[in-house]
Backbone:
């Protein structure tokens, strides 16, 4: 994890604090420990503590938290580590039924203990069997310029369930960041949820008195409801497509093994044997991935080809070496060349897997339909392709995602169109999905048309649709969706302009209040006056890898602002929709 120290903001500090907090929590429990994990936590915890560290702190075995009795326990302590989730409390109570009396049980809440959860445990008659602790892991460093709270259902909880406890967690995460990197002098925001978080951040900041010079100049809070089109659109960057097609969780992706097997390995596989899936860790510690991750997928193949030629050239040069000095120079480069060859082979295999899916008729037709909606085409009628998808019984997530893109791009659907889509879903997929349609409506994703044409105005005024983009050597952030510039990122170009339109005119047309306030710095602390300002952009309700790529592009091309991204979670259209049905 040394790569976390290589960014402009040294995120290794945040990881080290999380490690210290975890160690302190475990040391409070004396003796050997069996850990029972909330299923959502091994990935996030793995980013701050490797298995060997847990072993050194007395953990002997680990199990997932599921219903039913615990397996045979040989250690004196059982430690449940869980988020504040009522269904997890039910499983813990189930685990405790018939438990051995000589075992001590502990419950570690992450990031904070919950009175509602403790009341559930009390109602289930097990709260007195547990010693309760906290592990204040508010936010995790995912990569050199990326932070996430890893609350993967944040969109549903905020915009469907109206569970605003997440907003306090967001404010606490920002408080953690300010405790390490100084009070952030200026706060911007857009949207109702951003306004609420900004108020909490301001109150919490008043208690921060440590004289740390600010390492972050601006905080921008983006309420996901201000831009619903972007998370629904299909991402077309290398990293974004990996997440869209295979799922990228805490920098780890699991892929089919076929493309990664050597000829010898394939020959050794028996006919009745299934090779294990390939797990890859993808972050900036992989130099080649760092170069490829934010490229449009059509630029990845040529980049890999150029790298292959460069490696071949280096090997050929070694053959012409004559002196001992030239040989020594080549030998010193050899480890790097071998590592680059391995990385090249790995990313070539990943690219081949993606290309098979991206070149399929199913993918291309769905993408074409999305892009027509985003360009304002056929928004006022039942779309023939969507109707065909329903008739064929295509996956419901795919169908609903397309409907929601059409709705969000048209500021809702005409009543007859909306009713036709609802009827098609209920008749084609079953009445049980009526609840899913209601949730999509509550979230603002699939609604009846409003009188205003907000997205149409923003599309034109902010030039969200860009024609004739150069995917190989882009000049605009629209390359991340091959022609659509994420509204959220255009908003940031408005707030930190380099030739962008005046902010006031645009902000009036984006839903929700606008936040702009200055925080009081601790006594004796002055804001930074460097030529490049650091801006922390916090997405409340999720961010996509395409948006992250767009902000990295702006950081690299801009002269005055460098962006660091934080979010409640990292999402994509399929994940967003699937959590609502």
Residues:
């Amino acid at each position: 994890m040394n790569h976390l120290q290589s960014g402009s903001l040294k995120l290794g500090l945040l990881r080290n604090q999380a490690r210290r907090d975890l160690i302190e929590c475990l040391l409070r429990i004396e003796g050997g420990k069996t850990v029972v994990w909330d299923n959502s936590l091994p990935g996030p915890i793995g980013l701050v503590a490797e298995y060997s560290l847990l072993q050194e702190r007395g953990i002997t075995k680990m199990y997932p938290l599921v219903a039913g009795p615990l397996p045979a326990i040989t250690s004196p302590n059982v430690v449940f580590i869980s988020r504040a989730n009522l269904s997890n409390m039910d499983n813990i109570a189930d685990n405790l039924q018939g438990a051995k009396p000589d075992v001590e049980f502990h419950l570690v809440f992450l990031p904070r203990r919950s009175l509602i959860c403790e009341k559930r445990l009390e109602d289930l008659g097990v709260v007195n069997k547990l010693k309760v602790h906290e592990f204040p892991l508010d936010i995790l460093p995912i990569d050199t310029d990326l932070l996430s709270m890893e609350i993967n259902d944040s969109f549903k909880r905020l915009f469907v369930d109206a569970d605003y406890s997440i907003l306090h967690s967001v404010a606490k995460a920002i408080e953690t960041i300010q405790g390490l990197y100084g009070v952030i002098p200026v706060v911007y925001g857009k949207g109702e949820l951003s306004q609420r978080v900004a108020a909490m951040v301001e109150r919490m900041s008043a208690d921060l008195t440590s004289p740390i010079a600010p390492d972050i100049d601006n905080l921008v809070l983006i309420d996901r409801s201000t831009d619903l089109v972007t998370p629904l659109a299909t991402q077309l960057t290398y990293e974004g497509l990996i997440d869209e097609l295979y799922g990228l969780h805490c920098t780890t992706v699991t892929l089919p093994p076929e493309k990664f097997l050597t000829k010898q390995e394939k020959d050794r596989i028996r006919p009745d044997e299934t090779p294990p899936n390939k797990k890859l860790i993808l972050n900036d510690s992989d130099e080649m991935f760092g170069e490829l991750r934010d490229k449009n997928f059509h630029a990845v193949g040529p980049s890999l080809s150029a790298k292959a030629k460069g490696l071949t050239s280096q090997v050929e040069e070694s053959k012409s070496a004559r002196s001992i000095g030239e040989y020594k120079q080549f030998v010193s480069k050899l480890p790097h060349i071998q590592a680059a060859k391995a990385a090249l082979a790995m990313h070539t295999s990943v690219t081949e897997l993606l290309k098979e899916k991206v070149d399929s008729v199913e993918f291309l037709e769905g993408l074409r339909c999305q892009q027509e909606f985003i360009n304002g085409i056929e928004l006022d009628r039942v779309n023939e392709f969507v109707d065909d998808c329903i008739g064929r019984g295509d996956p419901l997530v795919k169908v609903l995602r397309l409907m929601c893109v059409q709705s969000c791009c048209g500021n809702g659907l005409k009543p007859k169109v909306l009713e036709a889509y609802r009827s098609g879903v209920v008749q084609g997929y079953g009445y049980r999905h009526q609840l899913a349609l209601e949730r999509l409506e509550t979230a603002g994703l699939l609604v009846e048309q409003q009188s205003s044409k907000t997205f149409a105005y923003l599309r034109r005024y902010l030039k969200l649709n860009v024609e004739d983009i150069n995917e190989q050597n882009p000049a605009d952030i629209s390359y991340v969706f091959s022609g659509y510039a994420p509204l959220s990122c255009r908003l940031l170009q408005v707030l930190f302009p380099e030739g962008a339109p005046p902010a006031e005119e645009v902000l009036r047309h984006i839903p929700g209040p606008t936040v702009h306030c200055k925080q009081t710095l601790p006594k004796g602390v002055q804001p930074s006056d460097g030529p490049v300002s650091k801006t922390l952009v916090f997405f409340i309700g999720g961010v996509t890898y395409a948006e992250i790529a767009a902000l990295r592009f702006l950081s690299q091309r801009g002269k005055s602002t460098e962006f660091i991204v934080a979010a409640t979670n990292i999402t994509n259209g399929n994940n967003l929709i699937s959590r609502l049905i």
About this structure: The chain has a mean pLDDT of 89.
